[in-house]
Amino acid sequence: MTSTPGPAAPVTDPVLHSNTELGISAAIAFDDFTKPELLTQWLTAAANVDRGVGGRYELFWMPDDPKNNSTMGCKITAWAPGELLAFHWKSPAQFKAFANVVDPLTHVVVTFIAHDRGCRVHLVHSGWRSSPEWDQARLWQARAWSVAFDQWRSLLSAET
What tens digit of pLDDT does each residue of 100-119 get? Predict the structure, then answer.
C-alpha cells in the first residue's frame, strides 16, 4: 500500500552549514563525494551514483535493508566536477515518516574551493521544515555531517 504525503509543515529553512579543510585537490574531494568506491571509505556502506545531473545519488548505511537509512530515490540536481555537487537527501528511519515523504525533500549543495594547501569543502543542507520533529531531524543531521567530515579527515590523515 502506497501512502500519500499529507500537508507538510511550512519550509522555514534553518539551513545547516558544514565545512572542512582538506589537504587534497578539489577534484579529488569531488571524486570522494561522487564515486561509490570512495564514498564507502568514509560516508556510507554502499552507494549507487550516476555521475551527472539527474543521476542517482543513493547511499545505503544498511545495504540489506535499502528502504531504511538510505537516500534511495534521490537524484543529483547540479554537477560541476571539482567545483559543485547538489542532490536531494532522505533522513534515517527514525525521521522518514515525515521527512522522506515531503515534496521537495531536503537538499544538499557541496562546493569545493581550491587553495594552495588543498581545498575547502562547504556543505549547505536546506529544506528543513519548522516543527519540533523537524528540529530533531535537523540537529541529528548536523551531527551526522560533522561525524562524516571527521571520518573523511581521519581517512585522509591515515593515507599520508
Answer: 999 999 999 999 999 999 99
